Each structure stands twice: as structure tokens, then as C-alpha cells.
């Protein structure tokens, strides 16, 4: 069974996208890269070096510094909240 990420925009108070994670090899990428690969706009001015903190989701997670695998962990459904969406 595929795992699911629900992307919620806090500014719009809407679910922006529901993304199914089809391939386990995708889990090696960062959460930020995965979201961007699925057309979710994630702000960045350091290109994933972990210094700008513009890519924060869920109020505290630096999405360029966490792997997709660690983020989804054992959950069937994971929620990503983005403040400016
Ligand atoms: S993109 Fe700059 S800290 Fe994540």
C-alpha cells in the first residue's frame, strides 16, 4: 500500500495536494525535493544547504534537512503544513 502525504496550506486553509509515494527509492530524497518534484512551491534561498530556514514546514521542520523516509516513518498518512500556501 502506498503511503500518502497531504499538503495543507495554512494561509489558504485548504488541502493543496494529496501525494501518493509510489516507489521506495524516492524515500532517499529530502522532503523539500520531494515536495518540489510534485509541484509544491517550497521557498529557499540557500538551495538546500540548511541555512536560510525558508523551507520550514509543520512550524519547525527544515524540509531540506530531513529525508522523506524519516518524515513519513511508519505513518500511512503524513501531513505537511506550509504557512504561505
Ligand atoms: S532551503 Fe534553506 S534551510 Fe532549507
In terms of topology, how is this protein built?
Elements: E1 3-9, E2 14-21, H1 31-37, E3 56-57, E4 61-62, H2 68-72, E5 77-82
Parallel strand pairs: 1-5
Antiparallel strand pairs: 1-2, 3-4
Bound molecules: FE2/S2 (inorganic) cluster.
FE2/S2 (inorganic) cluster binds next to loops.
What would your notes on this structure say?
The structure is a single chain. With 85 residues, the chain is α+β, with helices and mostly antiparallel strands. The chain has a single domain (3-82), classed as Ubiquitin-like (UB roll) (Roll). It is built from two helices and five strands. Strands 2-1-5 form a three-stranded mixed beta sheet, with no helix packed on it. The termini are far apart. The mean pLDDT is 92. The chain binds FE2/S2 (inorganic) cluster.
Amino acid at each position: 500500500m502506498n503511503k500518502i502525504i497531504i499538503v495543507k496550506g495554512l494561509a489558504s486553509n485548504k488541502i493543496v495536494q494529496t501525494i501518493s509515494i509510489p516507489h521506495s527509492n524516492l524515500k532517499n530524497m529530502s522532503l523539500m525535493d520531494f515536495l518540489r518534484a510534485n509541484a509544491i512551491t517550497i521557498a529557499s534561498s540557500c538551495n538546500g544547504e540548511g541555512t536560510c530556514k525558508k523551507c520550514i514546514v509543520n512550524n519547525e521542520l527544515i524540509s531540506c534537512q530531513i529525508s522523506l523516509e524519516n518524515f513519513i516513518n511508519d505513518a500511512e498518512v503524513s501531513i505537511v503544513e506550509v504557512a504561505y500556501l
